[in-house]
Design goal:
Chain B: This is 2-oxoglutarate ferredoxin oxidoreductase subunit alpha. The complex is a heterodimer of chains A (180) and B (360). Chain A is α/β, with parallel strands linked by helices. Chain A has 6 helices and 7 strands. Chain A has one domain: Pyruvate-ferredoxin oxidoreductase, PFOR, domain III (Pyruvate-ferredoxin Oxidoreductase, domain 3). Chain A is 36% helix and 26% strand. The chains are: A alpha/beta (180), B alpha/beta (360).
């Protein structure tokens, strides 16, 4: 099993940390992982993206031409990555950030209104975990238990009381993701 | 108990490996894309545990001269920077090489020339393997291609540096520095005691002892006859390193009709390109130099006998390609493909280049 994933959106949306949690969860399952950010003079409001690869075997390139799955959280990122999803692959986008939705016919397109769900429930900071939940519904790259284990391991103990709300966010994401 | 594996950036791995290897001192100055080395050391506070000194100098020039001083006393010392910062260090590096002192320099390259970009590049290949500073000297140059190698090469670089009394450099790029991967860190070992340092480095300047005169560390001889002797000695040492310390990795070379030569992040990208090309029935192999100096010229010459053409993939305008051409003495076509200024090619671009430039 190998999953090549791009997560792209605005800086400040939790794109890089979502990738990090996914990579760390893969590590909890003893998988090979790489996390490669497009780093630069990034800032809140600018674009940010990260490539995450989770694999049972040694990973060659951290830089990819095409992806199995693209998670797109804003319009500029859709323009950049829609054509880089492998035929038959999955594209997930957040309805709040995308005005002109993707149009490709040879890939599976899903919409997740994660920003709206997070705001309605007053848990805006878990936006990226809702999106992660949507991904895990479609692509069970890692088990939810591994995500929780990764959170326990990476979060400082004073933040451990936030783990249940993150778990809830994952479940919300699993429920609200739907085909376009 | 299973080994403890951690997920971290290449830069962080270098910092953790340095502490665990018992390094005595780090002297640096922040610059993207390698600032996490200094930041991680500051976070870890090794001065409270192993006693390792971590110091942010006032400039790159100061940092390399602190390394010069620390190395002269036989201590395990290092610095790190990125391209423009490493240019500033060149005078000090030449002095350290001339004085035959062991140390580690880390260069996490960015796009140049000048201030350039902060994105990945390998444009300091020439600077690293052909000199950089003045005079006839060489650096032992290691090119990691994974986060694990970022960690492993700290110890390897120091072992080689002390074995040959020569500065060693880890030449990485922004991809390897910024990427996170699984890594197994070395066991924590204690720093050497002063007695152990004196036993390992009888040449070091740790004060005049009763049984001998003062040790003098210098790169200066006023008598040219003496200076020539010193230079000849250096060249003999470099010849020995070239004989004994070449390191490289070969993947799918046995049945290869074409060969890609690439180091660092480009070797990873080229490996994926190789997999794609092989899926199309193109028999291509990958030779990854691990030591850029000494360069695996013999291994490349050996492989050149079986292949129809060689492509180098580099994040520069074609630097290592010159050494590959020298290695094969132009007996097979050797072409270069690369991107510049901080742009990293994807595997498809490498496959296309292989077809257009080599297979035709």
């Amino acid at each position: 099993m190998k999953q090549e994933i791009i997560i792209a959106g605005f800086g400040g949306q939790g794109v890089l940390s979502m990738g990090k949690i996914l990579a760390y969860s893969g590590l909890m399952e003893n998988k090979e992982v790489t996390w490669m950010p497009a780093y630069g003079p990034e800032q809140r409001g600018g674009t940010a993206n990260v490539t995450v690869i989770v694999s049972d075997e040694r990973i060659s390139s951290p830089i990819l031409s095409q992806y199995d799955t693209a998670i797109i959280l804003n319009q500029p990122s859709l323009a950049k990555f829609e054509n880089k999803v492998k035929p038959g692959g999955i594209l997930i986008y957040d309805g709040y950030g995308i005005i002109e939705p993707p149009t490709r016919k040879d890939i599976q397109i899903y919409r997740i209104d994660a920003m709206d769900a997070a705001n309605e429930r007053g848990i805006a900071k878990t936006f990226n975990m809702i999106v992660l939940g949507g991904l895990l519904k479609l692509r069970p790259v890692v088990a939810i238990e591994s995500v929780l284990k990764a959170l326990r391991k990476t979060l400082p103990e004073r933040h451990h009381h936030l783990i249940p709300v993150n778990e809830e966010a994952i479940h919300i994401g699993m429920e609200i993701i739907k085909p376009q | 108990m299973a080994e403890e594996v951690v997920l971290m950036k290449g830069n962080e791995a270098i910092a953790h490996a340095a502490i665990r290897f018992g390094v005595d001192g780090y002297f640096g100055y922040p610059i993207t894309p390698q600032s996490e080395i200094l930041e991680t050391l500051a976070d870890e506070k090794p001065w409270e545990t192993t006693g390792m000194v971590v110091l942010q100098a006032e400039s790159e020039v100061a940092a390399i001269n602190m390394v010069y001083g620390g190395a002269a006393s036989g201590k395990m010392v290092m610095t790190s920077s990125s391209s423009p910062g490493v240019s500033l260090k060149q005078e000090g590096i030449s002095y350290i090489a001339g004085a035959e002192l062991p140390c580690l320099i880390v260069n996490v390259m960015r796009g140049g020339p000048g201030l350039g970009t902060i994105q990945p590049s390998q444009a300091d290949y020439f600077q690293t393997v052909k000199g950089g500073g003045h005079g006839d000297y060489r650096l032992i140059a290691l090119a990691p291609a994974s986060v694990q190698e970022m960690a492993d090469f700290v110890g390897l670089a120091f072992d080689l540096a002390f074995k040959y009394r020569n500065p060693a450099i880890i030449l990485a790029d922004g991809v390897i520095g910024q990427m996170m991967e699984k890594v197994v860190l070395p066991e924590q070992r204690p720093r050497l005691t002063n007695e152990e340092v004196m036993a390992r480095c009888p040449w070091a300047t740790f004060g005049k002892l009763k049984h001998r005169g003062p040790n003098i560390v210098t790169s200066l001889e006023l008598d040219p006859a003496e200076m020539e002797k010193r230079n000849i000695h250096l060249q003999q040492k470099y010849a020995e390193i070239e004989e004994k310390e070449v390191r490289y990795e070969e993947i799918h070379c046995d049945d290869a009709e074409y060969l890609i030569v690439a180091f660092g992040s480009c070797a990873r990208i080229a490996q994926k390109a190789m997999e794609e090309a092989r899926a199309e029935g193109i028999k291509v192999g990958l030779l990854r130099p691990i030591t850029l100096w000494p360069f695996p010229s013999k291994a490349i010459a050996e492989r050149s006998r079986q292949v129809k053409g060689i492509l180098t993939v580099e994040l520069n305008a074609g630097q290592m390609v010159e050494d590959v051409r020298l290695a094969v003495e132009c007996k097979v076509p050797v072409e270069y493909f690369g991107r510049l200024g901080g742009i990293v090619p994807d595997p498809d671009e490498v496959v296309t280049a292989l077809k257009e430039k080599i297979i035709k």
